Amino acid sequence: MVKTFFIPNKQSILGQQEIHTAKSILGLVEGLESHSYDAVYLRQPLNRLEYIECAVVGKSQFLFKVRYLDSQNGYQVIIPDLITRADWEIVEELLRALSSKVGEAVEGLADFDLENYFQETVKNYLADKAARLGFCQGILSTIYFDKKDLESFLEEDGLARFEELVKRVQGSDAYPSSAKFYPDGEGKIHGVYHLAQGVKTILPKEPVIPAPYVEQLVGKELVWEIDLVKISGDGSKPEDYEAVARLDYKAFLGALPRELYQDLDANQVEVGPVSGEDFDNLVKGN
Prior knowledge:
Elements: E1 3-8, E2 11-12, E3 15-16, H1 22-26, E4 32-34, E5 52-56, E6 64-69, E7 74-79, H2 85-102, H3 114-127, E8 133-137, E9 142-146, H4 147-153, H5 158-170, E10 175-176, E11 180-183, E12 188-196, E13 201-204, H6 214-217, E14 221-231, E15 241-248, H7 249-255, E16 261-265, E17 268-271, H8 276-284
């Protein structure tokens, strides 16, 4: 469920007015940047690009899309199914500024209410009875939520609870560990996470296959593991990092002392930083 707003390009007896460049559209909101194209491409009329993904660094939690549809002779602004109030303020500012620049009204804005949109989105997630976890892709991180979270989002101040969850995850200063995949001689694929000594790290409670690998790994037997990595020197060179133990991932998380991690969301924990005796004890657990 995504919401699309439309601004028709102004027509006159002389024909359609010039299509604005991506750069000129971004310039309508202070700090708005493209996260899909480098600056050199932004000088082109917007219809020459598939779309631009936009955000204000330091304020946005999610990206939204702006594109021009030649088939409909107008601009589309597309927001994701879950956004924060700060994100909506940016989108609304752009919609009103672009509408003023083009000279046409925004279709779909007058009857839009963010709270209602949020509530309907949450209900749609809850309607999927088979899903144990839901997620949304933030500008920096993926945010996971479960049924309990979703039900709390429907309560009073539910949007505020969602915003708090998003900010907690994306505000973490921990390193987000992503699995690397290696085949072995027995036809199995090993998905390996890493936890480095002294480095605060985000790990999933249940391993996740990144989207680019999903098709490649369909039907494969996956073995999930974690490498514990010691750092020597100043950590500036590859040889400063040495994997000193490879553990079964599920067993590792199950044995991880509670004081060494905290929950971030329904499927992510922030671990460490683990060093000294604590790290040595984890290695000895191999």
